[in-house]
Specification:
Shape: globular
Largest sheet: 2 strands, antiparallel
Radius of gyration: 25 Å
Strand order of the largest sheet: 1-2
Order of helices and strands: HHHHEEHHHHHHHH
Distance between the termini: 19 Å
Low-confidence stretches: none
Helix content: over 70%
Length: about 325
């Protein structure tokens, strides 16, 4: 147990330090970020027309400035109330601006991910109860859907909602998000579909491998119902594989969230980072930490519980 905790703690520190290093990268190439912000403000407000009078870009590596900013970022994170970001109106506190965007994104993300996981489990359960011909047909369809680009599936669902509205006058979901009327249902549905397809295809393979095991034949010989064997015997053995694969599904859903925020005009975390991080590297650092810390806690806790309950050593890394 101590070795597992020590390994997890070292992973957390290493990844967190990597996030601070990524967030501070602009300071490695620009010696005076504050001057750059002032020039951009003057350009956007029309005070100056161009910056040609400043001369060319003085390229280089500013190692001292880079590591100084990493230290400063760690200090600022300890006191998040003091964090600000650059805007034309002046410095703006990062909190609660980024927190509101974060909570909106996490609502979409958590509901969509959990919905996709639940749908994948239910689909796999009913397919395992069905005959092999039905399974093969369903698997072929899942392979076809998975081969489509994610953005195509998202746009297809969005177009379907528009077509239904045009045909019936019924708008099931908002197809665009505005400041006072945020879209929830359709982004959640889009986010759930792609992980559901990915996980369903994987679970079908794993369950069919389990179905060929001797303990399943023994359970059938004892007269247990097929549904009982799937839910009690087989699912218990598939749980570890499901947990390990859920990490991949987590990152697949997270990457799609960025696409969804752009397509639906959602004012979420990724759009907030995309809009402000180029001139405010601190926002990149804060945003990545807000994603990484809950993810690390969730999967570290899950790994610890599985190892303790099943006395199984999971070799895969958390990050």
């Amino acid at each position: 147990m101590k070795s597992t905790m020590l390994k997890g703690f070292s992973q957390f520190l290493t990844t967190a330090f990597g996030i601070f290093m990524i967030g501070a990268l602009p300071y490695l190439f620009f010696d005076n970020m504050e001057a750059a912000k002032i020039n951009i403000k003057l350009l956007r407000t029309g005070v100056i027309k161009d910056t040609s009078f400043l001369g060319g870009f003085d390229g280089g590596f500013y190692i001292g400035s880079y590591f100084s900013h990493i230290v400063a970022s760690v200090t600022e994170i300890i006191h998040p109330a003091n964090l600000t970001y650059f805007s034309l109106a002046g410095p703006v506190p990062i909190f609660p601006k980024i927190l509101d965007a974060y909570l909106y994104s996490m609502e979409i993300f958590i509901v969509g991910l959990c919905g996709g996981l639940f749908a994948a489990l239910m689909l796999t359960y009913f397919l395992m109860l069905a005959g092999r011909r039905v399974r093969k047909t369903a698997q072929s369809f899942l392979y076809f859907i998975e081969s489509l680009p994610d953005i195509f599936v998202i746009l297809l669902l969005q177009t379907l909602i528009v077509w239904i509205y045009d045909s019936t006058g019924i708008l099931f979901f908002d197809i665009i998000s505005v400041e006072f009327n945020r879209a929830y249902g359709l982004p959640m549905l889009c986010l759930a579909v792609i992980p559901m397809v990915f996980l369903s295809k994987y679970l079908m393979v794993v369950f069919e491998e389990e179905e060929a095991q001797r303990y399943v034949e023994l359970a059938r010989g004892m007269g247990l119902a097929k549904s009982t064997i799937i839910l009690v015997n087989m699912f218990r053995n598939v749980l570890i594989s499901l947990f390990l694969q859920s990490k991949t599904m987590f990152w697949v859903a997270l990457s799609n969230l960025l696409v969804l925020e752009i397509i639906f005009g959602m004012h979420g975390l990724f759009r907030f980072i995309w809009k402000h991080a180029p001139m405010n590297p601190e926002i990149m650092t804060v945003g990545m930490l807000m994603i990484f810390i809950p993810y690390f806690i969730l999967f570290t806790t899950g790994q610890f519980l599985l190892e303790r309950k099943g006395a199984v050593q999971l070799d895969s890394e958390i990050v």
